[in-house]
Design brief:
Creatine Amidinohydrolase, Chain A, domain 1; Creatine Amidinohydrolase; 2 domains; 5-stranded mixed sheet; 3-stranded antiparallel sheet; globular; binds glycine; binds manganese (II) ion
Length: about 425
């Protein structure tokens, strides 16, 4: 979709008559004490989506009486000398102040990274939510970028599989992944690559370190490539050498749970139901393993499943690893399902890109917590659960687009084998 079409779509959804909307890209953030060094720059998603532009400090503004206008900082002396010197597509940012002053007294919404003390906070929040809703369905161009990211991500996972052996460190495998995806056409990782060996496979957002893989360990990799800011979010759990029969059983159950969740990513499906279904399938494995003493259905209904699956089953993805997460306009919910608050709580619509990422983990802080042990009492075989401490956990994740028919799993070509 062209930027003009996107802007028209947002304006139609806002349906304003007198309000002014200003959307800021944001400025680079300096590294504290880093002198002229900045963190890698990413424009705010709202600005990026509306303009298809990544200009630092850019602003796009909307007046329902006169339409959209884009303001950009002039090319700096540094950019002229050292490059890159981007060709401006908008008016000079110096014209923004007079543009806004000419509209003073009218309600103002500040979106993206734009900040203005005069802005109406409630209006800003409402319009941002509407924009999130408009951005949530991915168009063909966006899906094509995610498909390119998926191809590169597959190369990264294949490189990891080739490199797995006892003694290799999490950091070694991170480097293998990030090298392979860039060789395969990615701009780089779409988010911080997670590689967790053995007990580290139970750490949700782990920074890979010098822990070395040992024979029989799980290895959890949660990593995805970015192409032109579009990202796929993928997790696979491998085994180093031979996994025990119990570890293989749990791995197979998490794959089964994930594929069941993917199959449920259909039009109108409540995200809660996806979480619940995934929790039940994984709980069946906990029953088989003798870790829980009640039924799988009871494990999910009671919330006990959250002892082993303590995060929401997924989130929207696309322009970044978290994209357009705000609740749809008119949906005010704060519900729990299977003992957790899911990260998105909405019905799925055409074109939504979501990740499905169930996991079962043996987390020391949860399994040794006195309050939880009292609460779940005899519903858990605590000795059996403790026997898994140190094993870590298993998570499997794909990035999926909701279609008129079967879900489009963008990342299913990446092997699920342990
Ligand atoms: N892939 C990391 C996450 O979804 O948080
Ligand atoms: Mn994810």
């Amino acid at each position: 979709m062209s930027r003009e079409a996107r802007q028209a779509k947002a304006a139609a959804a806002w349906n304003l008559t007198n309000e002014i909307v200003v959307v800021g890209a944001g400025d680079p953030i300096g590294i504290p004490g880093g002198h002229d060094q900045c963190f890698p720059y990413k424009p705010h998603h709202e600005y990026r989506w509306l303009t298809d532009c990544k200009r630092e400090g850019g602003i796009v503004a909307y007046d329902p009486k006169s339409g959209w206008v884009h303001f950009e900082p002039p090319v700096t002396e540094m950019e002229l000398v050292w490059g890159p010197s981007p060709a401006p597509i908008g008016r000079s940012i110096e014209e923004f102040g007079p543009w806004l002053a000419a509209r003073s007294g009218r309600p103002l919404a500040a979106l993206g990274s734009y900040v203005n003390a005069e802005a109406d906070a409630a209006l800003s929040k409402t319009l941002s939510r509407i924009l999130s809703h408009v951005r949530r369905p991915k168009d063909a161009t966006e899906i094509a970028l995610m498909q390119r990211a998926a191809v590169a991500t597959k190369a990264g996972y294949e490189a990891i599989r080739r490199a797995i052996r006892p003694g290799v460190t999490e950091r070694d495998l991170q480097v293998e992944f990030e090298y392979a995806i860039q060789k395969a056409g990615a701009d780089g990782p779409g988010y911080g690559t997670i590689v967790g060996a053995g007990p580290d496979s139970a750490v949700f957002h782990l920074t890979p370190g010098d822990r070395a893989l040992q024979e029989g360990d799980y290895l959890l990799v949660d990593a995805g490539a970015a192409v032109d800011s579009y990202v796929v979010d993928v997790t696979r759990t491998f085994g180093c050498g031979e996994l025990s029969a119990e570890k293989l059983l749990l791995h197979a159950a998490v794959v089964e749970s994930e594929l069941a969740g993917v199959a449920l990513c259909t039009l109108g499906r409540e995200w809660h139901d996806v979480h619940h279904a995934c929790a039940v399938v994984m709980a069946e494995a906990l029953v088989k393993l003798g870790v829980v003493t009640c039924s799988a259905a009871e494990t999910a209904e009671s919330g006990l499943s959250s002892l082993f699956f303590p995060h929401g089953v997924g989130h929207t993805v696309g322009l970044g690893v978290r994209d357009a997460m705000a609740q749809p306009p008119g949906i005010e919910r704060d519900r729990m399902v299977a003992g957790v608050r899911v990260r998105i709580d909405m019905p799925l619509e055409l074109g939504y890109a979501v990740t499905v990422e169930p996991g079962t983990y043996f987390i020391p802080a949860l399994l040794t917590d006195t309050a939880r042990r009292e609460k779940w009492g005899s519903m858990v075989n605590w000795d059996k659960a403790e026997s898994w401490l140190g094993a870590g956990g298993v998570r499997v994740e794909d990035s999926v687009v909701v279609t008129e028919g079967e879900p489009l799993n963008l990342t299913s070509a990446i092997s699920y084998d342990p």
